[in-house]
Amino acid sequence: MGKNMIVAQSGGPSAVINNTVRGIVETARQMDEIDTVYAGWHGIEGVLKEELLDLSKQCEEEISLLRTTPAAGSFGTCRYKLKPGQDEDFDRVMEVFKAHNIGYFCYVGGNDSMHTAYTVANLARERGLDVCGLGGPKTIDNDVGDSEFKLVDHTPGYGSTARYWAHYIQQANEENRGSSPADPVLVLQAMGRKIGYIPAAARLADPKREMPLQIYLAEKEVTIDQIHENINTMLKERGRAIVVVSEGLSITGLEIPEEFIVRDSFGHPTFSSSKITVGQMLTNALNDRGLAVKGAARCNVPGTHQRNDMVYASTVDLEESYYVGQKAALLAGAGEHGYMSTILRTDWDNYQVRYDKVPLSEVAEKDRKFPSQWISECGTDVTDDFVKYARPLIGDNWVSVPMIDGRLRLAQLNTSKEMFADQKLSSYIPQGDRS
């Protein structure tokens, strides 16, 4: 009889995060080393509260349907951070591990999640518990790993969001082309905080650069005077302009006051929750300053559907998300402690990848940067090298999503009380939730 596993999710979900979980669960179910697979209900918070959903008892069909079920609604995610000094939280996690014979802890998420997996598992070992801590990568921002792509080529979730933007820009171009006499400028704001992989994906809609498209990444300093001049120059030449900006873009002369920005428990800004967006501020400034042609600028700020739209998911992203989850389970079964499963590109000309591992210590709380050489000298575009990197990730085919009576058939895990592990400890309120 093997030891039990806890798999949990953290941070903003993606279209394919559930497929990584599916890869973990389906693989672990076949391994003698792993007995029961539990899900932490809403991430590490569920572990702290001893809310452990039994995934091993779930219907195989519902686990299979996780493939095309987006986001993290099946058993939840969280933005709760285990911080230094929260000794009661760490003690509680250890108690839960002991009470439920946990030998494997697999956290699916970004670099903060990798830090949690690394910290928790190491602490368990320091206290004499034989626990393997592992990570499954997930982030639409593609900011886990290194900028040389030797540790991580890309993370599951990014390819689907990039595909969303490639298609969104094509459709936005049709809108702008049709309505340009009245609305010559369309400003679009992309997710990604301070890293430019998502807005850069707009170029995948127009690799031959035929659209009147400008892309501003947060990595490139720019002033409101420069943007205004760039857009007016394009308006004089083309009569219209589509402008894509990073949600974390800092525009000199058009700064967002810090008090308007909402931050999560990790300290990261959540721009979609903030009182004002850079996209709307830029649109207002363009209209106040005036355009080189008649009409006004308008603004679109897509919400969280850019990270959870299964219809736009990449088939490549779906496949890779499963195998990276499978790799994490195989690492667990082999007793490999302190690793994150990873995707490495083996052929740049004829896209091929392999699945490997990287020490959690090398990716925990370490943000990958967008390569400066992939930003055009003018600062309003990305290079062909970026297109070569990102193009294979969005795939060529549409995802086949099961439907019943005109509605998506999504996974429905059994979350009745009897499907949760019996609670053996006293109730607990996480330290960060105490008022």
Automatic annotation (TrEMBL):
The positions annotated as site (Important for catalytic activity) read K138
Which part of the chain is the Phosphofructokinase domain?
Answer: 5-308
Q: Under which EC number(s) is this enzyme classified?
A: 2.7.1.90
Q: Which cellular compartments is it found in?
A: Cytoplasm
Q: Name one Pfam family in it.
A: PFK
Pathway listed for it is: Carbohydrate degradation; glycolysis; D-glyceraldehyde 3-phosphate and glycerone phosphate from D-glucose: step 3/4
Does the record carry Repeat as a key word? no
Q: Which residues form the active site?
A: D141 (proton acceptor)
Binding locations of diphosphate: G12
Q: Which residues does substrate bind?
A: T139, I140, D141, M191, G192, R193, E247
Cofactor(s) the record lists? Mg(2+)
Which residues does the UniProt site feature Important for catalytic activity and substrate specificity point to?
D112
Superkingdom of origin: Bacteria
Q: Which GO terms describe its cellular component?
A: cytoplasm
Under Gene Ontology molecular function, one entry of this record is: 6-phosphofructokinase activity
An example Gene Ontology biological process = fructose 6-phosphate metabolic process
The regulatory note on its activity is: Non-allosteric.
What NCBIfam families is this protein classified in? PRK14072.1
Q: Which PANTHER family match?
A: ATP-DEPENDENT 6-PHOSPHOFRUCTOKINASE 1
Q: What's the family?
A: Belongs to the phosphofructokinase type A (PFKA) family. PPi-dependent PFK group II subfamily. Clade 'B2' sub-subfamily.
Assembly and interactions?
Homodimer.
Q: What is this protein's function per UniProt? A: Catalyzes the phosphorylation of D-fructose 6-phosphate, the first committing step of glycolysis. Uses inorganic phosphate (PPi) as phosphoryl donor instead of ATP like common ATP-dependent phosphofructokinases (ATP-PFKs), which renders the reaction reversible, and can thus function both in glycolysis and gluconeogenesis. Consistently, PPi-PFK can replace the enzymes of both the forward (ATP-PFK) and reverse (fructose-bisphosphatase (FBPase)) reactions.
What HAMAP family has UniProt attached to this entry? Phosphofructokinase_II_B2 (MF_01978)
- Protein name (database record): Pyrophosphate--fructose 6-phosphate 1-phosphotransferase
Organism the protein comes from: Thalassoglobus polymorphus
